[in-house]
Amino acid sequence: MTAEQLQSLIAAGLTCEHIEVTGDGRHWSAVIVSPAFEGKRRIQRHQAVYATLGNRMQTDEVHALSMQTLTPAEWAAQH
C-alpha cells in the first residue's frame, strides 16, 4: 500500500476538501478535512474513515493509521 493508494481509498468513500497521508507502508498518519465530520464526535469521524478502508485494517494491509479529522471550519481556524 502506498500513501497515494490509501489517500485514494479514503477520497473514494468520503467527500474530502483536503487529505494528507504520510507513512512507511505499515504505519500511517493522515490529516483529513471533510464536511461529513460536521456535528460528529472524534470516534464517529474515525469510524467514517475506517469504513472507507473496508477490511484492510483487519487483514493488516493497513497496519496502523493515526488520524487528525477536521471539519472545513476547524481546518480554516488552524491555517
Secondary-structure topology with pairs:
Layout: H1 3-13, E1 18-23, E2 27-33, H2 42-53, E3 64-70, H3 72-78
Parallel strand pairs: 2-3
Antiparallel strand pairs: 1-2
Helix pairs in contact: 1-2
How would you summarize what this structure contains?
The chain is α+β, with helices and mostly antiparallel strands. It has three helices and three strands.
Q: What's the CATH superfamily, by name?
A: BolA-like
Distance between the termini: 29 Å
- CATH topology: the name is GMP Synthetase, Chain A, domain 3
CATH architecture: 2-Layer Sandwich
Radius of gyration: 12 Å
Cross-sheet strand order for the largest sheet:
1-2-3
The residue ranges in which pLDDT falls below 50 over 5 or more consecutive positions are: none
User: Can you count the helices?
Assistant: 3
Percent helix, as a range, is: 25-40%
pLDDT averaged over residues = 95
Counting helices, strands and paired strands, the structural category is alpha+beta
Shape label: globular
CATH class: Alpha Beta
Estimated share of beta-strand residues: 25-35%
Number-wise, the strands total: 3
Number of domains: 1
Helix-strand pattern, N to C?
HEEHEH
